[in-house]
Amino acid sequence: MAPGAVLTSVALVAVALSGCASPPVDKETDVNCLAPDGVEHRVEMHCDNQGQGAVVLHCVDNAACEAALAIAFGVEGKTSTGCNGYLPTDDPEKLKFSWVMEADQPPGAAAGCLNVTGVPQEDIKKAFCDNKMSFTEASVKKCYGLDRVVV
Question: What does pTM read for this prediction?
Answer without folding.
Answer: 0.74
